[in-house]
Amino acid sequence: MDLSKQIARVKAILGTPRNEWPVIASEPATIGGIYKDYVLVLAAIPAVFGFLKHSVIGIDLPFLGTYRASVGAGLSGMVMSYVLGLASVYVLSLIVDALAPTFGGQKNRVQAFKVVVYASTASWIAGIGQVLPWVSMLILLAGGVYSIYLLYLGLPQTMKCPSEKAAGYTAVTFVIAIVLSWLISFAVGGIIGVGNMRGSGLPGVSDSGDAGGFDADSPMGKLESMARQAEEAGKKMEAAQKSGDVNAQRDAAGDILSAVAGGGDQVESLAPDRIKPFVPESLAGLRRTEISAARNKAMGMQITEARGTYSNDAGRSLRLEIVDMGSMKGMMAFAGWAGVEQERETDQGHEKTYTQDGRMVHEEWDAGRKSGEYSTVLGERFSVKLSGEASSITELKAAVASLDLAGLEALRNEGVKRN
What we know:
By secondary structure, the chain is of the alpha+beta class. The protein contains 15 helices and 13 strands.
């Protein structure tokens, strides 16, 4: 890693982007090389300064004082933020590459990675502003806006799209970037590893010249499947644009988002009547007093929820929520691959996230109020959460264990269309 060259590139892309983009587009590069020489350092900036802000400097809360997260929680958040940063640029580059033909461009995985990475420079540098007082949001906003401008300038040079289509290409990419960021954060997930890096020296990446690939069920196999599905959705988008069919364009955009969230699979969430039987009539000695189930669909993505309320005459109550993440199944898998684990304890209770028997588990307990919640993820698809009053967190665990978890997990592949 040549730090002087890295600094020169940062200055050039931020100061004279119109001159720098042709240079970037023409220079030979590999995804692994760009990660090693550029991304690994710059992507650490927002993560490190976020840690300084939350655990060292603290956040000023009006009328309440300054709040500082524990060092352990801060470090955990810093590492996860860094991993997500490294992963998101690669995933977004897959989408940019898949969309290229839709906007008259040329597919090229390395060039797509270049445009996403170097356009992100402004946002990464703006991450320094987190440690400043009230102006921090303005700095972060400015960095985001300038990154959009850099993307607009870079797409015609790297992806060879006509200049008149660069604005639309930029807008679609920006929307997908926002949705992708939300989905990954929502799933508390991340992706480890970057694909297509022969010669990078990274473990698990073949340096042979054959056309080998990753196992279909591996993280990178899922990403490759995601890219293929996004590519097909891009073709549908192109056809819809030519026909002028607004509804077809909307459906194609939904297919692209579904490809990202589903990890390369098309997933139809369970019908409400399929998930309601997993909400029993009684739980932990309490009778069910309310039940509801619904399937929601928007922009090609589906989620089904079933909820049950349990109570007794003494006023004690529990709330059970079972969610089929459906089209967001891929994001749940990414969370599992990341191996998220954290623990925080106070005088009044604790909060933990860990993996047990291959399932991601989260628990919270407030000893003072004698209440908490216990949740687990089944089959990288179903979320089961029980919250309310109990004698201990052990009672909530036992109540969840009494549910037909195996039966629910057995439905993990129902409605899934492999690509």
